[in-house]
UniProtKB/TrEMBL annotation:
Keywords: 4Fe-4S, Iron, Iron-sulfur, Metal-binding, Oxidoreductase. Transmembrane segments: none annotated. The lineage of its organism: Eukaryota, Fungi, Dikarya, Ascomycota, Pezizomycotina. This is Fumarate reductase succinate dehydrogenase flavoprotein domain protein. One of its GO terms (molecular function) is metal ion binding. InterPro entries: FAD/NAD-bd_sf, HdrA-like.
């Protein structure tokens, strides 16, 4: 093919003579890292690497970033929190997943997917080390030996062919397009039960692939709207869709995730055919709403938006040194190379999707979060390739949990940081599996804000470890919470979670109201088998109270001899009694919450999943703590927590909370002056809150516990000297970078204001000084 030849140009005219053929304009580029795919995972991998000094080229085949989270598909970002419907307390992902979700909350509590687009585009545009190419599809790769040498991508909007040469590559394409072209090993479909001993492996009747979904939005116009269905719309919804009675005009968007199809097709190459079938279903359903006569409330509704591309769930899964299995999730197995965490359920869907007669999904939860190892994200055969997003090395059953976006984004955060470490040490990703390299990666990740269950940040460069003293102006102690909240009727069993150390259990006092002359209330103290879980399965003590009508003051002593065997959150449980209400408080404190017994998880006996009770929180503005007294007072919010290496509640609060009404100053002192240029502080943004990115709104723009205004001051002289101040924060992890290094023997980190001071006591999880 001959290159294009320009014959004549002028100020307003360009002429080219006829030639045998022409080629597209070509652009050759180089970078340290090429990230293919700009969904949530690709976006996060690119940002994480760029912030650590890696030059990145990000290739995205769509006009916006975000993939399934974008305005093109409009699925909410979720992961280990699982809508707060499981026992995974304080489980929201850290790092860049947290940063993006908190920024989206601040700008977009209503859940508008267009605003989320702008958040992610802005995050990329603000990174000078990233070159972004939208509408640019990966179409080929070339190799030198077993390494990827370059990739080719085409932008149909600019008619440009790009040739990108990088040292490392991350495949975040969803279907594993780069890994496929490069020849990496992969699997499609479900393993048999006996291959990995996975009892939840589906049979052929259920199906071995999850399909695609397309969502739609409706709008009330205030006047009647007529709808004429296209000819390809499904004609008989009641006959063709077994679950047609589940349709409601109040449901839209990802609440209709079960409008799913394609699980018995090739979910890569048949995507367009699957999309047409989903359009057929969506327009048929809307025709059913508008014209069946069964939905008079739909008269003024119009079909505002229908997705133009399907949201994919499953296609290829690529193979690494480790393949995650069901047991890694349900048994919460330890991995020495853990770089991320998950907590979504084992969420398999019937292959027949919307046309299936069985439930749209079967969700079985583990009792807590689980680790995800780096060895699922690297390719042994192609040393400069990493797997991002949902294509990591996992069995079909494990994939049912690891596939969701916030989990994939957390994995990608690890890959971006790994790329930076590879550049720094001149090694390939698979070499990071060596013990010393892995420990360096895990250290970098925790510095970055990534949460690694079971690991603590021990940073040898952090000057806080060398401080002679860490003192707070005050410390919150749980002794009494006033009864100024709404009474809570025990229509469900209710529990106050309390962080206790091993030993004798305090005594508690609460006020309950009985609506009948005589009834009995059972109170139990429960714990978890594993200290870092929040499944109240072990009864530590029980007391029964005979109540009279009206107010009853209960002293709960569990016979005075109940002991707590381990450091953990215990559950002070008030069992269901609809004749009884318990007094609550408006006071809310970091790392203190109540949960309700929502349901029991009762799987069949042969699927390898535990039966247990699910106790879940009620979202703000509801979900109050109990009005109670504790004796002796519970001192779990001490200053020393800011240096224990875990910046969120686990089996302890892990945070310092100052007492109400006092100056909120944390002081760090050294024996001799130290040079300080940067201070990292980790605030409380309620890691239990799911922060769904779209559709489901939130009651606040900033998490109320979170510190809004704070400052760093030099306390080494006679007068306080302000070194740094921030007045409008809504994020978890903040860095105070000083204009010039300061030599001092004493500094203070002061909380000036929370995002909601009234009734809220918020604190600090971590302070690091460099």
């Amino acid at each position: 093919m001959a290159p294009a030849r320009m014959i004549e140009t002028g100020s307003s005219l360009r002429r080219e003579a006829a030639v045998p053929s022409r080629g597209f304009q070509e652009n050759h580029m180089t970078a340290d890292l090429c990230v293919c795919g700009g969904g949530l995972s690709g976006t996060i991998a690119a940002i994480a690497a760029a912030r650590k000094g890696v030059s990145v080229i990000l290739i995205q085949d769509r006009p916006v970033l975000g993939g399934n989270a974008s305005s093109e598909v409009r699925l909410w970002i979720l992961g280990a929190t699982s809508h707060m419907f499981n026992n995974n307390r304080y489980a929201r992902e850290g790092g860049l997943v947290d940063e993006i979700l908190l920024e989206n909350l601040y700008r977009n509590p209503e859940g508008n997917p267009l605003i989320l687009d702008t958040v992610m585009l802005e995050k990329i545009r603000e990174e000078p080390n990233i070159r972004l190419f939208l509408n640019t599809a990966l179409i080929g790769c070339s190799k030198e030996g077993n390494r990827i040498d370059a990739v080719q991508a085409f932008n149909s909007q600019t008619s440009t062919m790009y040739h990108v040469k990088a040292t490392q590559y991350i495949d975040c394409t969803g279907d594993g397009t780069l890994a496929f072209l490069a020849g990496a090993p992969f699997r499609v479909g479900a393993e048999q039960r006996d291959e990995f001993g996975e009892k939840f492996a589906p049979d052929s009747e259920y199906g071995h692939l999850l399909g695609h979904s397309i969502y739609f939005y409706s709008k009330d116009t205030g006047q009647p709207v007529k709808f004429v269905a296209p000819s390809y719309a499904l004609k008989d919804v009641e006959k063709e869709i077994p679950r047609f009675k589940s349709f409601s005009t109040k449901e839209m968007g990802c609440n209709l995730w079960w409008i799913e199809h394609g699980g018995r097709m090739d979910t890569v190459h048949d995507t367009e055919e699957i999309k047409w079938e989903l359009w057929r279903v969506v327009y048929g359903v809307w025709d059913y709403f508008k014209n069946s006569g069964q939905f008079p409330e739909a008269e003024n509704l119009t079909l505002e938006w229908v997705g133009t591309i399907p949201g994919k769930r499953e296609s290829r899964r690529f193979i690494g040194p480790t393949i995650m299995t069901q047991q890694d999730i349900t048994e919460q197995r330890f991995h020495s190379d853990a770089v991320s965490h998950g907590g979504w359920s084992l969420d398999l869907h019937p292959a027949d999707g919307v046309y299936s007669e069985i439930d749209g999904c079967t969700q079985w939860h583990a009792k807590g979060v689980y680790q995800i190892p780096f060895s699922t994200m690297v390719c042994a055969e192609i040393p400069n390739l990493m797997y991002g997003g949902r294509i990591i090395s996992a069995s079909h059953v494990a994939f049912a949990s690891t596939r969701v976006m916030a989990t994939s984004g957390s994995n990608a955060n690890a890959l971006g940081v790994a790329a930076a470490l590879c550049k720094q040490q001149s090694v390939d990703p698979i070499q990071l599996l060596a013990k010393d390299n892995m420990q360096a990666l895990q250290l970098d990740l925790m510095r970055f804000g990534q949460y690694l269950p079971g690991f603590k940040l021990r940073d040898p460069t952090d000057l806080v470890h060398k401080a002679k003293s860490i003192e707070g102006s005050s410390e919150f102690v749980l002794s009494n919470l006033p009864a100024n909240g709404p009474p809570k009727v025990l229509v469900r069993s209710l529990a106050q979670m309390l962080p206790l150390e091993p030993g004798i259990v305090p005594t508690f006092a609460v006020t309950v109201l009985s609506a009948v002359p005589q009834t009995r209330l059972t109170v139990q103290l429960r714990g978890s088998q594993k200290a870092y879980n929040y499944t109240p399965e072990v009864i530590l003590g029980e007391q029964k109270f005979d109540l009279v009508a009206g107010a009853n003051r209960l002293a709960i002593e569990f016979n005075g001899n109940t002991t707590n065997p381990q450091t953990q959150y215990v559950f002070l449980c008030f069992l269901k009694n609809e004749s009884v209400a318990i007094a609550t408080t408006k006071t809310r404190v970091s790392a203190l919450m109540t949960v309700e017994h929502e349901c029991d998880q009762s799987p069949p006996p042969d699927v390898g999943v535990d039966s247990f009770e699910r106790w879940t929180p009620v979202r703000r503005p509801m979900g109050h703590n109990l009005a109670l007294t504790v004796s002796p007072p519970l001192a779990a919010w001490a200053t020393a927590n800011i240096n224990n290496g875990v910046p969120r509640p686990t089996k302890r609060t892990n945070c310092w909370v100052p007492a109400a009404g006092s100056r909120k100053l944390l002081t760090l002192a050294w024996d001799a002056p130290v040079d300080i240029s940067r201070i990292v502080v980790h605030f409380d943004t309620d890691y239990d809150h799911a922060l769904e990115s779209v559709l489901r709104g939130h009651p606040e723009r900033a998490i109320p516990f979170c510190v809004k205004a704070w400052r760093v001051i030099d306390l080494s002289g006679a007068d306080e000297e302000e070194l740094f101040v921030e007045n409008d924060n809504h994020h978890s992890r903040r860095e105070a970078v000083l204009k010039e290094p300061v030599s001092t023997a004493k500094i203070g980190v002061e909380i000036l204001e929370l995002n909601r001071d009234r009734d809220f006591l918020g604190g600090i999880f971590e302070v690091r000084v460099y």
